[in-house]
Amino acid sequence: MVITSTVKEPEEQGQSLHCTFASRYVRDPVPKFKMPGKSIPKDAAYQIINDELMLDGAPRLNLASFVTTWMEPECDKLIMDSLNKNYVDMDEYPVTTELQNRCVNMIAHLFHAPIEEDECAVGVGTVGSSEAIMLAGLAFKRKWQTKRKSEGKPYDKPNIVTGANVQVCWEKFARYFEVELKEVKLAEGYYVMDPAKAVEMVDENTICVAAILGSTLTGEFEDVKLLNELLTKKNNETGWNIPIHVDAASGGFVAPFLYPDLEWDFRVPLVKSINVSGHKYGLVYPGVGWVVWRSKDDLPDELVFHINYLGSDQPTFTLNFSKGSSQIIAQYYQFIRLGFEGYKSVMENCLENARVLKEGIEKLGRFNILSKDIGVPLVAFSLKESTQHTVFEVADHLRKYGWIVPAYTMPPDAQNIAVLRVVIREDFSHSLAERLVSDIEKVVKLLDTLPSPLSTKAAHITAITNEISDEKVGNSAIETQKEIAKYWKRLVDGKRVGAC
Length: 500
Ligand SMILES: Cc1ncc(COP(=O)(O)O)c(C=O)c1O
What we know:
Blueprint: E1 4-5, E2 19-20, H1 21-24, H2 42-53, H3 73-81, H4 94-110, E3 122-126, H5 129-150, E4 159-163, H6 168-176, E5 180-184, H7 195-201, E6 206-212, H8 224-238, E7 244-247, H9 255-258, E8 271-277, E9 289-293, E10 305-309, E11 312-316, H10 326-364, E12 367-369, E13 378-383, H11 391-399, E14 407-409, E15 418-423, H12 430-449, H13 459-471, H14 477-492
Parallel strand pairs: 4-5, 4-6, 6-7, 7-8
Antiparallel strand pairs: 1-2, 3-9, 8-9, 10-11, 12-13, 13-15, 14-15
Helix pairs in contact: 3-10, 4-10, 7-8, 10-12, 11-12
Bound molecules: pyridoxal-5'-phosphate.
């Protein structure tokens, strides 16, 4: 593509310059460290950046992500129209604040918060589930500390009990806010937190147990009801009052529509707060999450800032100050546009397309399916036989067809299992599912014709092979498989952001 510009170089002054983008701007390296001294025309700046961005993956083929990649043009328009609105200016943009409050109310009702039909719920819009989890964690920590102080007990060693399948944002919370994360280890064939083991791990310093509705790794729902039963028993025996938080980042907008009778939310008495990502199955572009509390009593008032908004009190509890308004407006659009009926239909479609993909992959006869039929619509699968080739190679070869499918190893104690995961979003159709199966088949057939990476002479492979053979002459197939998984993990760590 050619872009014309009328900018004049000093040596060309006096002449009307008709220079092309290619001849003038692309010759110089793009600025990477220091802001350039001179301006360039807007169309050239656009072209340079746009051309580089072409090398990013195509978001709609990014099957690694739960995050929304398609919305209706009407909503795109609302988003564009509100890009210049700072959400924090509540006095200036009272309607936007009102839309946020309406979304909080709708989500709290969806999650069966014990509030009246027209009562305002306690919750807030966030940048995503990560911020929502930080806020929920801070509320638990402060409540626990206040109680311990009043009892004259030490309050400097708070902990949270979770499964080892927890998403990285919990580790961030733990590190940033000085809370120990006690992780229940997984086991081969069991990839979520075992409620019985979690309850064994709690102690007087446990500020909450975090259960995941829709494990990031396999989409499986953890058993919140059983956790509640076991934890209630423990609380009664010990006099502790340990609550539950549900991380419903991806499952919070799936379960109410597909499994309305599943009790995982505020119907379960110990559940005091829930986070959900608006930008996942809430069907909004990236940048919105939500946290809701059971009641006012579960959010310590000292964490809440009160803003005077049109003469009335607008409580706020967020980590940052300024942020965009568009995603909040887009969330409200989706709620009123789709309604319960629309969300149910979208989730049913996703589930059906997940079924098509799962059955197609099963038919290939080369993979084990690890995801469950009840859960977030995704398909997680591992190679039945991975001593010759690995899921990491499958993922790499799928890239050549345009698909971005993440491959990763499971957390402890299931780290010898390496999986591929395909998230089914609203815009992933039946025909794309069939195409993906056909491309996976081609990749598997191709790999059958290629030597195993362990038998090639490539330096990086040789290094690991030596390492393996030095230590493990006469390894069993399972041990070899573990070593291969470890090698690949090392290779891809740092390159991949991991499961998100
Ligand atoms: C279970 C779980 N919790 C939290 C998060 C973080 O969510 P967000 O990207 O909305 O910050 C994710 C992301 O995938 C997740 O799967």
